[in-house]
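ok so dumb question maybe but i'm new to this and my supervisor (M.) told me to 'just get the structure for Glycine cleavage system H protein' and walked off. so i did the thing. is this what she meant?? sequence i used:
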Amino acid sequence: MTTPEELRYTEEHEWVAGRDGSLVRVGITEYAQDQLGDVVFVDLPEIGRRVAAGEVFGEVESTKSVSELFAPVDGEIVAVNDAVAESPELINSDPYGEGWLVQLRLDDPASPEALLEAEAYRALVQG
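this is what came out, is it supposed to look like this??
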């Protein structure tokens, strides 16, 4: 399982990638997409929506189940990945790259620091 060191993670299996200090990309981890199986549909929020950490902001539907997406930090949705909406399988093939879900403008630029580092996330999923 790949767990890029430069990302931060949640216990709900989302990742956060810093962009320029106030903007981050959010997606689901390789572990999460593996547990879901083949992703067939993604429901993403509207641009401009405000989210709070822990709040549901969308869903990922696979051949096995439907899973909610949880905001990892407080902020405003400033972009959604239309490519994933059109081709949900990108989440399976490239969860840390082309399979990103949304971009957030952070309320607090330091908030991702409170999330799990790669080593702690690996320990979480390995039980």
